[in-house]
Write a structure and sequence with these properties.
70% helix; 17 helices; transmembrane helix; Bact_Transport_Assoc; 400 residues; mainly alpha; single chain
């Protein structure tokens, strides 16, 4: 048997995963439409996000409930699933996955760093690379260990919603806006994105200090990002080990239960933030409990729909974008920053939440069409091809 590591063959793909990745890309660009237009931290006190009146308020509420904090968990779940699946396929062939894993992770980290500095500072790929260092060792655990550890980590993040509002008020007591480094970061970012050149924007990303803690602030944000996604990585790996997606008909009952629980808890946890957007506790409830539960609903509903011919046919187009998720994710940043930042079309803080969401949907539709056209002639996306070439140290076949 050959011990040389080989990439996944096109026929080995699970199309439901590609459809879910495509759906995740739609949700991510919609959620990020806030941040492309109003800055990384979406500090609402610094601008008017409702120039179109009620339609902007409705669009914001819809995104807060159904989109925000529900699609990075989906992307994270799929990443963990994909890593576990890839490792299992190597083991089934009697090959070692170690070298491939580390090369793949290193490339992901490099791309994530470059993306965060030169395209958009809302990058998640670098955090995924750091988290993958831990994932490598967790993937040695049995399935039971994965699900227990994953649930504990997700539960710990969810416990942030138990911190009362009075705690935040006490922590902020006596702090003026001028002395708040996060508020100053928001002001400086809005200034550079609405008036600065590309060079000034890159320089800001390299020198800005959102927490005012220097290198310790960067470490804190990295650790927070790692623990924010690690539990979801592990739950994705667990579902892969149990075969719940590759063989959905035998697990249909589980998916139905999770779908209804996810919908009920998700909506109950995410709706309150729309009535008081300044509440830190409701924001934590929306992000750390509502987000993962609504993600559970989306995954379950997708899996169940994909078991029917009609549902599979309706969701099929999403798979084209999903097969090129790496390319499309990065190009979303390129396109959206060009549309909104001063060095591009300069629409920053000018069109409102509703129009910003329409732009995001239009960009995704264009990506969907271009992905289908590209995959008519090529086996994978251009950046997927480069990633595989570096991962496997061989040039994969690109043209069909």
């Amino acid at each position: 048997m050959s011990q040389r590591s080989n990439p996944t063959l096109e026929g080995d793909r699970i199309i439901t995963l590609d459809m879910l990745r495509g759906f995740a890309l739609l949700g991510i660009i919609l959620a990020n439409s806030f941040h492309f237009q109003y800055g990384l931290l979406y500090e609402t006190s610094l601008f008017n996000q409702y120039p179109n009146g009620g339609i902007d308020r409705f669009a914001e509420s819809a995104i807060l409930i159904f989109v925000q904090a529900s699609f990075y968990p989906l992307f994270s779940f799929l990443f963990g699933y994909g890593m576990a699946l890839q490792k299992q396929r190597f083991l089934d062939r009697g090959q070692s996955f170690n070298a491939v894993f580390w090369r793949r992770t290193l490339i992901l980290g490099i791309v994530g760093y470059l993306h965060g500095v030169y395209l958009w500072n809302g990058d998640i790929l670098l955090a995924y690379a750091w988290t993958s260092v831990l994932l490598f060792f967790f993937l040695m655990m049995p399935a039971r260990g994965l699900v227990i550890t994953g649930l504990i980590l997700v539960g710990l993040m969810g416990s942030c919603a138990a911190v009362p509002e009075s705690f935040y008020e006490f922590a902020e007591q006596g702090m003026s806006q001028e002395s708040d480094p996060t508020y100053q970061f928001n002001k400086d970012e809005i200034s550079v994105l609405s008036e600065g050149t590309y060079g000034e924007t890159v320089e800001f990303r390299q020198t800005a200090d959102p927490l005012g803690l220097g290198v310790f602030g960067n470490i804190f944000m990295t650790v927070n990002a790692i623990f924010g996604v690690l539990g979801l990585f592990l739950l994705g790996a667990y579902v892969m080990r149990k075969g719940w997606i590759s063989d959905p008909l035998n697990h249909k009952g589980k998916w139905k239960i999770m779908m209804w629980i996810g919908l009920a808890v998700g909506l109950l946890s995410k709706t309150p933030i729309t009535f008081n957007k300044d509440s830190n506790q409701l924001e934590a409830l929306q992000a750390f409990i509502g987000g993962p539960f609504l993600t559970m609903f989306f995954i379950s509903a997708f899996i169940l729909a994909a078991t029917t011919d009609r549902g599979r046919k309706m969701l099929q187009p999403l798979s084209y974008a999903g097969r090129m998720a790496f390319t499309n994710y990065l190009f979303q940043s390129l396109i959206m920053t060009t549309i909104f930042y001063h060095y591009g079309f300069g629409l920053f803080n000018s069109v409102g939440v509703f129009v910003g969401a329409l732009i995001a949907i239009a960009v995704f539709i264009v990506q969907l069409i271009l992905s289908k056209v590209w995959l008519t002639f090529f086996r994978m996306g251009p950046l997927e091809w480069l990633w595989r070439a570096g991962t496997y140290l061989q040039l994969p076949k690109l043209k069909k």
